[in-house]
Structures are given as structure tokens and as C-alpha cells.
Fold:
Amino acid sequence: MPEQLFQFLVTGVTVGSLYALVGLGFALIYNASDVVNFAQGEFVMLGAMTAIGLLAAGWPMVLAVMAATLLTVLVGLLLERFAIEPAKGASVVATIITTIGAAIFLRGVALLLWGKDFHAMPPFSGDAPIHLGSATLLPQSLWVLGGAVLLVTLVHAFLNRTLIGKALLACSFNRVAAQLVGINVTVMLRLAYGLSAGLGAIAGILIAPITFSSYEAGIMLGLKGFSAAIVGGIGNPMGAVAGGLLLGVLEALGAGLISSGYKDAIAFLFVLMVLFFEPTGLFGHKVAERV
Amino acid sequence: MRLIGFYLFAAVAVLLPVLFPNNYFVTVVGASAGLHIIPAVGLNLLMGYAGQISLGHAAFFGMGAYTSAILTTRFAWPGLLAMAAGLLVAGIIAWLFARPILRLRGHYLAMATLGFGIIIHVIMVQAVQWTGGPDGLAGIPPLNLLGWIIESDEQWYGVIIAAVLLTIWLSLNIVDSRMGRALRAVRGSEFAAQMMGIDTARAKTQVFVVAALFAAFAGSLFAHQQAFVSPDSFNLMISVELVTMVVLGGIASTFGAACGAITLTLLHQGLVVFEDYEMLIHGGLLMAVMIFIPQGLFVGLSQGARRLWTIIRH
Structure:
């Protein structure tokens, strides 16, 4: 039993770091614009599918990954410019529906480009499993973990050490005040969308060799990322990372110990419980609702 | 005078099959539109009037459908009794979940209702011995309305239109009732509504249950009409489609929700030929409406017409 638990933990942390990256993207956009971007999962899917497509067309791995990430960043910027900016000042319900529309639209584009099939991506460094005591680990899992640690560290340093990062954080605390001290809020908004799309794309590319990808792959990933952000306290970037890891481990334990068919239900039941009993998230700062 | 729109709608719905007898488009597509109008009108009460959001409404649609399907096929219950049981199940579950869920606002509420919908969908797929799992349940008997058996397309059109008219009439009356005014106050400002002595938690619970009942009612009819149910008819996309219908037609308008349901049903029919483009168009439409006519097609058009009328008169 303990050795099995260790295996579940390893699987959970791998999936969890993916949720963490998607959740981090959610938190960045939410911080900058108060918008929950339901198309976040589609960034993940677009990154993976574009990279797979370019690899199949004979591009070298590094170039394909870079091009796929850049393309997804571009899509994120376009989404901000043509869907979010025009709807500025709209109600929460309206922005939710706009981004859901964008998600369905992007899924439709992917369906046209790549069809309904699942697409596989070759692992970055072979697929000989690594034995870690009693658990086994795919080399790709190490890439996912390493990539997640690197990206989270970079984003954390960016938000806390650089002037632009601090400006972005300032926007999340109070947009009017940020504008008054000379921060260009619109540019910050675009930066958040670009950054978040890029994070999503890289997450998608890292996990693609393990899970495969299809035009629909973004739906569940996006929702799990959203859950991670909520569990961590929405708008708290590092909370989202912790929330993602927690959700991944819980899901793997639930799948292994209870039933793999119910793993999504277990994950969302946990999210519901968090919402019912600790609605500001497990790691969020308490905010009073303004009337 | 207050119900003039209702009489107009009823007249058109009744006249259509008379003007076009034996027309597949009227009976089959009309019935399908009707089955969408009922949950959309209910959801509109929750979203449009009370200002809440539900991204898991297909769950209640599914509860009605599965309760009818299981009770009539496995236990040979009469259709109407099974339908009543479906309403009871959906109503009780909605009532139990309403208070904790509707305490949440905005994105938290969206997440909670979404999670709720996904959990119910997973149960439909996984509880194979009850629901038949991903393959669904077949062989649901035709609806028996006190000896009158509903089987042909024309009969179904009649029954569904009657059900639609009932729900629209109910919705119009709820909106103009004490409860409707309380809901609009909640949408305006929950805090201010409380200060005026409105029990906001109670008002929100009531409207959530009503919306769930409407959806379950349509679900029961759907199960009998299709003679088959599977989890695919009640997944997240269906919940999103219901929200689309409410928003597309015009939020906070009963006929807006009905028009949204009709428009989206027609669109699905029209796009069958372009199956691969359906998603693209659906998503694009949703974004375009939210950006350009956030008040919705029906409400936007009727506002435009009213403006035109005042210009002509002067």
C-alpha cells in the first residue's frame, strides 16, 4: 500500500504542476482585469496542437516549441484586443459568456485545422521509465516538473523583483490608483494576457507527450486550472500554484483509491467543499465585498 | 393587455402546423425548439431577473429525463407519475444546493454551478447499473396522458407547445408577482434588497428551485419524445447552450429567452450541413452578441423597432 501511495503522489504532482501552470495563468489575468478567462484551457490545447503540427511538418523540436508558444501568445493578445477590451465595464456574467464564446471559437478553429483525432507528441528525451524506489516515472514527467518549477520561479521573480512585474501587481490591487501613479493599465492588461497564454502553451507542450492532445483537450484542463485558482484564493498567483498541486494529488489519490471513473467528480466535489466552507480559497487573503 | 405577447406567441405556435400541415420542419424542429424554450425560460428567471448565473443547468434537465427513463423502463411506472417524481428529485436537490451555492457570487458562483453540473454528469456516466452508463437507456415508452398515448410527431408538437405555453405563462406571472419584484431588487443590489426587508436568500432559493423544475419538466418530456437518453444530452456544452439561449435572445425577457432558444435550435438545424463549422459559428456568435448587442437579439431588435416607431410618429 505505501509504495502504491508513493506512485499516486508522483502521478498527482505531475498532473498537479500542469494545473498549477494553468491556474497561474488564470490568476494573472484575473489580477489584471477581474476577468476569469474560460479560454485558458484552449491556450494549453493550441500550444500543444501547434507544436505537434509543426513537428509533423518537419520542424526541429526547439523551433516548433518556440513558434507554438509565440503563436499562442499572439492568440492571447488578439483575444484581449478584440473580445475583452470592447466589452470593458461589462458585468461578470457578460465577461464569462464572452470568454466561453472565445473558447468554443478556438475549439472550432482547432477542429477545422486538426480534425477530431488525438495527436501524439514524441517525448523530449526518450520514454524509458525511471525507477524511483517502488514508483516508476516517465522522463517526460521530469520535464513537466522541471518546467513548472522554472516557470513559477520566473513568474514569481518577475512579479516581485522587476518594475514591470510590480506595476502588474499594482494593477491587481487598485487599477485607478495604478493609473494615477503613471502605470499604463491597458499595456499591463495585454501583458497579462500574453504571459498567461504563453504559460498555457508551454504547459500544453510539456504534457502533450504523456496525455496526447485533441481539439477538446483544453476543456477539462481549463476547468481544473480554474479550480486550482479558486482553491488557492482567486487572484493569488502562488495560491493558484499550491491549489493546482493539491488538486492534482487529490485527484490521483481519488482515482487510485476510490475509482478512476469518478476522479473528475472527486476533484470538483473538493472544489465545491472549499467554496462552501472557505469561499475565499485556502490560501487567499480575506477581502470584504464592497456594496 | 399585459399578456398580449403571450397570446401572439400562442397564436403563431398553433397556426404553424395548420398553415404547413405534415411539415417535418414545423413539427420536429418546432418540438425540439419547444423542449429548449422551457429550460431557457426557467434559466432566464435565475439569470435575467435574479442576476445569478448557472453553468450547470443541464444537470436538472438530465435529472428529469433520467428519473422518467429509469422509473418507466425498470419499474414500469406510468409516465405522469414518473414525471412528478422527476420534478420532485430535481426540486429537492435544487433546494438542498441552493443555499450554499447562491451564497456565492460572480465567478465563484459560476465555478460552483459548473462543478455541480460536471459531478452530476460523471454520475450519469459511471452509475452504469442505474443509468446504463455512456450507452444510455433505450426503450422508454411513449407518454400516456390519462389514456391518450403521444406517439406521432404532430401529437408531440401539440403536447410540447402546450407545455411551452404553460411555462411562458407561469414565467410572465412570476416576473410580475411579489417574488419577481423581489428578484429584480436582488439583481439591482442584494444589500439594498435586504435593507428593504426582502429575505434575499429565500428569494434566490425559490427562483433556483423554479428554474430547476422547469428544466426537469422539459427533461421528462425529452426522454419520452426521444425514447432514449444518454449522458451526452446533459453535459457541460448543453449547460453552456442554455446560457447562450438566454443571452442570445435578450437577458431578463421571457420572450427573449424563448427567441434565443428558437434561434439556436434553427441554427443547429441549418448548420447540420456544415457540421465542422458549427463550433466556430456558435463561439463566434456568442462573442459577437456579447460585444455588439449585449442586450440580446430580441431585446435589441424590439428596442430598435420602438425607437423607429417614435421617429415615424413625430
Remarks:
- The radius of gyration of chain B is 19 Å.
